[in-house]
Write a structure and sequence with these properties.
Elements: E1 3-11, E2 17-26, E3 29-34, H1 41-48, E4 56-61, E5 64-65, H2 70-75, E6 77-80, H3 92-102, H4 108-121, H5 137-149, E7 155-159, H6 167-180, E8 185-190, H7 193-199, E9 202-207, E10 210-215, H8 217-222, E11 228-233, H9 238-244, E12 246-253, E13 256-262, E14 272-273, H10 278-287
Parallel strand pairs: 3-8, 3-9, 6-7, 7-8
Antiparallel strand pairs: 1-2, 1-4, 4-5, 9-10, 11-13, 11-14, 12-13
Helix pairs in contact: 3-4, 4-5, 5-6
The structure holds adenosine-5'-diphosphate.
Adenosine-5'-diphosphate binds near residues 14, 16, 41, 42 and 43.
Length: about 300
Amino acid sequence: MELHIESLSKTYSNGVRALDNVSLTIPQGMFGLLGPNGAGKSTLMRTIATLQPADAGSIRLGDLDVLEQSAELRKILGYLPQEFGVYPKVSAVMMLDHIARLKGLANSGERKETVDALLQKVNLHKDRKRNLGTYSGGMKQRFGIAQALIGNPKLLIVDEPTAGLDPAERNRFYNLLSEIGESTIVILSTHIVEDVKTLCKRFAIICGGEVQYVGTPHEAVRMLDGKVWSKSISKSELETHREKYQVIATNMSEGKLFIRIVNDGHPGDGFEAVNPSLEDVYFNAISAKMDLVTL
Ligand code: ADP
């Protein structure tokens, strides 16, 4: 099964065009939606999740017309929103049981089995009786995935789930998501390039409501082969370099300022060739739409 998004557009009442003719085909597995804050990622996620309408365009999941058959879609959707609130004084096991009942699991024996299996899957079984208010950020996110997985969704949407997680928690979360991606369409929205690099077979870069790139991380990096150059400069030279070159990033290393540029041939001027990275692809794709990004 694939998710087909066709010419989707959305302008909010304040005039912001959050989605501008977005078309994407998303196969089974982990799909990354990468873009800076304000790119339109949450708008796209909420539209796919049937939580808000689009102005134009269509979304199909297999034979299902998502925007017309929202009740059907919701039966096979798992959604972890960006702002995922939990009731602090309720235990994980009680809360999951409650959500499972709301989702229509009426038989208490079946419900207990489902909830137990999910708690095992997200590695929270031993902490299941603790109140959610005592959970760390990573534990809350794993709980969020558990609630999203009730009812075995065919489509799982996770909106910026790794922001704020420490490296160990992030790793645990990556493992969990990649396991789920073996049997489900998972759309992961993120502004963290590392998330895409680690997890996603395919990804899209979205900026200003438009799709700037779609493909595999490997193909994306290969497109910049032989085109990325770097050198260290003094701060006072930055402005003239910005005027002269397509600067995609500046970063400090050992107290020195380095710039990275994209240029078709060797620019001379003291630049050295560097291996392109997925960060370069990302900043190159969004730099046309945004002011210079400082790493
Ligand atoms: P992202 O998830 O990539 O940060 P969003 O989809 O949240 O992007 O936002 C895209 C653009 O739409 C932003 O400019 C944002 O300010 C605007 N926006 C989002 N939600 C609303 C809303 N309910 N009303 C008006 N503007 C909105």
